Amino acid sequence: MNEYMKSCDLGIPYPPVKTEGKNLFYASLLTNDYAGIVSEMSAVSVYTYQHFVTVNRKIADTLKCIAIVEMRHMEFLGQLISSLGGNPRIAVQSGCNCSYWNAQYISYETNPKCYLKDNISGEKTAISNYRAHIKQINDKYVRTLLERIILDEEHHIKLFCALLEEF
User: What pTM value is reported for the model?
Assistant: First the structure.
């Protein structure tokens, strides 16, 4: 593992992925973070795309590393959704309505300066969404895990800002 791969891991353990019990409302909220427009699914997809089209090895390696962390978040959210009684399909569930994730949700920008700015904005929006959901969820286990995920997202912002400063 090279230095860029090590840099995106905070080295802070994640809390257990569990819930206090079934709650379909909480599961529905989490589907937005899991597979909405600004979601872990979108982050994994866009960072993977950017990794493939980026010539600069440092940027490409950092994008790959962050995509792997986002996959971990997606796995945790899928487990939470299941544990809460929801269905972890790649979709947003709102009541009886289901909107499946779509590849048009992501940007196919190839200019690193532009997409790094977009990535910073996306991470900030994800943090805002997680914080809004924490306020609505009264399950200590879910809240603790979401708070830990926020730490990663904040770290990703720092990494993207550092890469942007190099331009």
Answer: 0.95
3-state class (DSSP) for residue 122: helix
Alpha helix stretches (DSSP H) within the chain: 3-7, 24-35, 40-53, 57-83, 112-136, 140-165
CA 60 and chain centroid, separation: 18
Q: What is the pLDDT of residues 95-122, one digit of tens each?
A: 788 999 999 999 999 999 999 999 999 9
Q: Domains along the chain? A: 21-165 (1.20.1260.10)
Distance, in Å, from the CA atom of 159 to the CA atom of 66, rounded to the nearest integer, reads: 9
First to last CA, the chain: 25
CA distance 55 to 75: 29
